[in-house]
Amino acid sequence: MPQIIVEGGQTLRGTVGVLGAKNAVLKEMAATLLAPGRHRLTNVPDILDVALMSEVLAHVGCHVDRRDHELHIVVPEELEPEAPLHLVRQMRASIVVLGPLLARCGIARVAQPGGDDLGARPIDFHLDGLERMGASFELVHGELIGTVSDRLIGAEVELPFPSVGATENLLFAAVLAKGNTTIVNAAREPEIRDLVRQLRGMGADISGEGTAIIHVRGVDELRPADHRVVPDRLEAGTYAIAGAITAGDVTVTGCIPDDLRMELRKLEEAGVGVERGDGWLRVIGPERPRAVDFATLPFPGFHTDMHPQMVALLSIAEGTSVITENIYDARFRYIGELRRMGADITTEWQHAVVRGVERLSGCPVLAHDIRAGAAVVLAGLRAEGTTVVDEIHHIDRGYEAFVEKLASLGADIRRTG
Ligand code: UD1
């Protein structure tokens, strides 16, 4: 099995560019299903999850062609409204085709996703919202079968929690519904704003994105569009922490620093020097950071997908940090790996207490999920000796050329297998 091998102790310096956001492009690929014809997405990262979503689109009848960092997607008039278990199991985000398939076909058969590496992850908000818009669901032999008798109907839907995925599925349903839809307590993430930009380019009538209340006026049909994917704030934040954890000086280009406001603020509180401008940010790491507390929350709060990387940094801080994870039950699994590297971290329910240590020591570790994988590699950059990371397919799901980019900044890192 392939592994990543890191020899710790190098100071990272230089400039690294980021590509489009994984968590935007996957939904934007699903959005193309709403309009037959030829769509083009640019600034698309070459990551495993994009390949998996391409398989989902091919399964429903699309032709997907990748050219460098572009995707050309040809959506047919007639779709096969099905996302089978082997695809949904590999990538839970495939559930986002539910809304487009219901809107276009009046029926959707999607394998019930179940949990994943981050815990139970139910989809009840998606289903309740779509039911309010006239869809009915039944679970038959593990497959969710959604049907709409005539056309989806606009409704007011209030989400119990500002779920990113539920907001997206409801947007997809609403843009082609009859009448007006209001999504109350909608997710405000930058990736939602970007998805709305794409949908608007396709002819959708939406307002309020980026706030907690989104209004959609349904239209009869949409047209294909070209769309440039918003930069990946998580990729940018990960390289920023790579600079910080090695007491280095790293500039990240192609990013939107404003989309990382809370995370950069916490880095500054930790004593990391942060400069930012239009499309770039620069991070200068101290010899040892200071402890800081943070709690993960929906945007504009601290992103749960930056939590493990930030804890890797705080594991070598002076002082004790308290972290509260509010989004996922199983996010803390990476902590066992950091502990093996010498970190002093205890957990209680959704809290972690990180007592900073002076040094980490390299050892064999596992990448339990995408961000857990990033966190152990970052810890390995700072650790004494060799860190060997297994299960790196998780890292490939979300980072293009992770090893090459870190090596270009001066890391002693390689991939085997
Ligand atoms: C997306 C991101 C993921 C990120 C998360 C939160 C993608 C592909 N994934 O996931 O990387 O960590 O946003 O920013 O974009 N919930 C329910 N019922 C539902 C839906 C959600 O209880 O029907 C709960 C979830 O279990 C979780 C919380 O709500 O505890 C947030 O989930 P959600 O915002 O929906 O995350 P995803 O869209 O799955």
Which descriptor suits the 3D outline?
elongated
Radius of gyration: 21 Å
CATH superfamily of the largest domain: Enolpyruvate transferase domain
Which ions and ligands are bound to the chains? uridine-diphosphate-N-acetylglucosamine
In CATH, the architecture of the largest domain is Alpha-beta prism
According to CATH, the fold-level topology of the largest domain is UDP-n-acetylglucosamine1-carboxyvinyl-transferase, Chain
- Helix/strand/pairing class, anyone? alpha/beta
Count structural domains.
2
Number of helices: 14
What is the C-level CATH assignment of the largest domain?
Answer: Alpha Beta
Tell me about this structure.
- The protein has 417 residues and is of the alpha/beta class.
- The chain has 2 domains: 3-18 and 231-416, Enolpyruvate transferase domain (UDP-n-acetylglucosamine1-carboxyvinyl-transferase, Chain); 22-222, Enolpyruvate transferase domain (UDP-n-acetylglucosamine1-carboxyvinyl-transferase, Chain), CATH 3.65.10.10.
- The protein is built from 14 helices and 24 strands.
- The chain has helices at 22-31, 48-59, 85-90, 98-105, 124-132, 164-175, 190-201, 233-245, 261-269, 307-314, 334-340, 370-382, 393-398, 402-408, and strands at residues 3-7, 13-17, 37-42, 63-67, 70-75, 82-83, 107-111, 135-140, 143-148, 156-158, 180-184, 205-207, 213-217, 226-228, 249-253, 273-277, 280-284, 294-295, 320-324, 344-348, 351-355, 364-366, 386-390, 412-416.
- The strands form 6 sheets. A 4-stranded mixed β-sheet has the order 22-23-1-24, with helices on one face.
- β20 and β21 (351-355) form a beta hairpin.
- α1 (22-31) runs parallel beside α7 and α4 (98-105) runs parallel beside α6 (164-175).
- The longest helix has 13 residues, at 233-245.
- The protein is elongated and about 65 Å long.
- The site of uridine-diphosphate-N-acetylglucosamine (UD1) has 18 residues, from α1, α5 and α6.
- Uridine-diphosphate-N-acetylglucosamine binds at residues 23, 26, 93, 121-126, 161, 163-166, 304-305, 327-328.
